[in-house]
Hints:
The structure holds two protein chains of two kinds.
Chain A: E1 3-6, E2 10-14, E3 19-21, E4 23-26, E5 33-38, E6 44-50, E7 56-58, E8 64-68, E9 73-78, E10 87-94, E11 100-102, E12 106-111
Parallel strand pairs in A: 2-12
Antiparallel strand pairs in A: 1-4, 3-9, 5-6, 5-10, 7-8, 8-9, 10-11, 10-12
Chain B: E1 5-7, E2 10-13, E3 19-24, E4 31-37, E5 44-50, E6 53-57, E7 65-68, E8 75-79, E9 88-95, E10 108-109, E11 113-117
Parallel strand pairs in B: 2-11
Antiparallel strand pairs in B: 1-3, 3-8, 4-5, 4-9, 5-6, 7-8, 9-10, 9-11
Amino acid sequence: xxxxxxxxSHVSVSEGTPVLxxxxxxxxxxPSLFWYVQxxxxxxxLLLKYTSAAxxxxxxxxxxxxxxxxETSFHLTKPSAHMSDAAEYFCVLSGxxxxxxxxxxxxxxxxx
Amino acid sequence: DxxxxxxxxxxxxxxxxxxxxxxxxxxxxxxxxxxxQTLGQGPEFLTYFQNEAxxxxxxxxxxxxxxxxxxxxxxxxxxxxTEQGDSAMYLCASSLGTSGGPKEREQxxxxxxxxTVL
Lengths: 112, 118
């Protein structure tokens, strides 16, 4: 079975400090993994994707994620948070038919 | 704007009524997916089409739900005899994929249809 677990439902950081959103996955296949962001009243937007090439993946808006097979993790990081980063973040696994399996989401709060 | 549109954006209905939602994918995309997102949760897969063929349905899709994609273009999702538990955001996504091809193609999401069942 395939599943995604986001380890924190809510993360709060101060503007200018690093962001870490944690994600573990379970997959019997070689996984394709994504991070999507959802701003209030807006659609889901792809931040980055891992597709078995480089294990360190760079995305939009300064976000990065590192695929660690030994730890079955795909944590999302950003060196310096901006107020505009406040949103809901989803770690996502692609199933064998292309359907997406979402984690429960992490709400990122950025304090001034 | 991702290029995927959904209509209506909001729907309020009374329990027991039927509702239908429409999704227009990016024109060259052959795959179309429906997901449901309830408050505080991540989206859950409902069903998907490759061209006009419905290839997979989730167990979440009870017999009150039906989806179509005639001619492999737009898709409709109908819910019959709505229940309060059907209240959710219904999301549509499209992608370009091939059988046996890479599964990591990006899915582009529409803005969703928010359904409220009173």
